[in-house]
């Protein structure tokens, strides 16, 4: 797959700047038609999506249908249902000193948006921001991840079949293409990816004072309390950790369990993991051989005890579903986000000290999870653990609700989206006062 040339990117950008000034992208009917065209194009290319994600990431059809295609279609349908309401200017009160007059808040589009998609959910996490750009009334340059070339090609075909390039265009490439795109006089940037690249994006945005959203990651903790339902804990952890081979930014990255419950929980985790992921390759593929080797090195440096898994095949990009117990806070597996099918299990005695350690070692993760039968106690604990999002007695699935904002805080991200929050992310509030 060839990188998009600088000349082509500049042509797309200039055409989108001109097209945006005409005002068509702001119109409700235009936005609705654009969403319907995108929905039809995704459906028409569904078989290509299945094939591309099987090749790039080893994803099976059910996983793609739920977390990729289905998630995008649901977001489109939700936007179509609520778009007219979102776009309606809101009248607010006017103080007595400014009477007689009326005051309104309008949501205005930014202009040309640059959307950088990641590799782990290439359809979902590229198309959902695009939906936000469309409903906000913007044009968009979309750069899929170069690490998933088959998915990137399908994304380009979908966009080309649904939109004129003066409205939405796909650019392909890696670091050099990204650096050039970030040098343009963009109106808004939406980036999903690693904190390291997020810092580069933030620096580029700062140079030109471009507003942005960063969706990053972090080590998401699972805190198990002594009254938790261990069968529920095991079911949720195995689902959340090993789905998409652990390459989910809100996946449980490590589990904290009371010493007295460790054996019972580990027994359940081993049995369920062995049942659902019985062999090397069962979880799917990691993105690169280098990532497999990275996990091998981290596991080899760990002082924890491997109770299941540990095998790998870098040539095939496989890493077995792996459980490691007796892990300490200073262990190699606790230093950075793992982003793979490898789960450290940490025992604790003192709950207050454990909460303090979460905040000390892994401050403000993208998500935090607590398992307890006492809802109020769970909420009280979450209040002490700053994170982008959180759940009690479940993992990951909060991201499926269009009624909830999804996003990080500080090192795990800046800004949020999904549903109406996507509309808000891709617009700015403009105050308008009218005097008779």
From TrEMBL:
One of its GO terms (cellular component) is cytoplasm. It comes from the Bacteria. Keywords: Oxidoreductase. GO terms for biological process: aldehyde metabolic process. Gene3D superfamilies: Aldehyde Dehydrogenase, Chain A, domain 1 (3.40.605.10), Aldehyde Dehydrogenase, Chain A, domain 2 (3.40.309.10). Residues 4-431 form the Aldehyde dehydrogenase domain. Belongs to the aldehyde dehydrogenase family. PANTHER family: ALDEHYDE DEHYDROGENASE, ALDEHYDE DEHYDROGENASE TYPE III, ISOFORM Q. This is Aldehyde dehydrogenase. It comes from Pseudomonas reidholzensis. The lineage of its organism: Bacteria, Pseudomonadati, Pseudomonadota, Gammaproteobacteria, Pseudomonadales. The gene is mdlD.
